[in-house]
Amino acid sequence: MARRTARQVQRGIWITRQVRARVNWTQGVRLRRLEYVLRPLLDAGLDADTIAAELHSWMLTWRPARPAEYIRALLAQQATSEHVVTMTDIAEGWDEQEASGALGVSRPDLVLDVMEGLAAGMAAYSAHQAEQGLDDLTDVDAAADMAAFLAAGVPA
């Protein structure tokens, strides 16, 4: 862990003083102790407003007996869960850039088979509902929409 400069500590204390004034359940904590447990947020470059908003977002309806330890534990838990999500994404081969790209189909014939099956199922369901007097009361004809989509084809 890199040593903190005097300027970093001074800035951290200045921000922490503002946070402590805004979050009532932290007001009994010594300033240096609070600055120490808030370091993950301070090192991330968050300002007093953002840190206070984060602490308020925990929506405590009670006052922790040891607020500094509570903050430390919750920030550690958040860091662990973010690490688990990151590791899971890596393990599953998740690629955010690829996932946010345009939807492509590797087997258009399979997509058409599924869509045709859905259209047939919807037609059978609609017929069954009509037999029981439970007709669709909307003007939208889902089966016709599916047929129009199937006629247009699926881009490869």
What topology does this entry show?
Blueprint: H1 6-22, H2 31-37, H3 39-43, H4 48-57, H5 67-91, H6 96-99, H7 108-131, H8 142-152
Helix pairs in contact: 1-2, 1-4, 7-8
Structural write-up:
With 156 residues, the protein is mainly alpha-helical. It is 66% helix and 0% strand. It contains 8 helices and no strands. The chain has helices at 6-22, 31-37, 39-43, 48-57, 67-91, 96-99, 108-131, 142-152. Helix 7 packs antiparallel against helix 8 (142-152). The radius of gyration is 28 Å and the shape is elongated. The mean pLDDT is 83.
Structural class by secondary-structure content? mainly alpha
Radius of gyration: 28 Å
Low-confidence stretches: none
Number of contiguous helices: 8
Q: How would you state the average pLDDT, rounded?
A: 83
Strand element count: 0
Largest sheet: none
Approximate helicity band: 55-70%
Shape: elongated
DSSP strand content = under 5%
Order of helices and strands: HHHHHHHH
Question: What distance lies between the first and last C-alpha atoms, to the nearest angstrom?
Answer: 51 Å
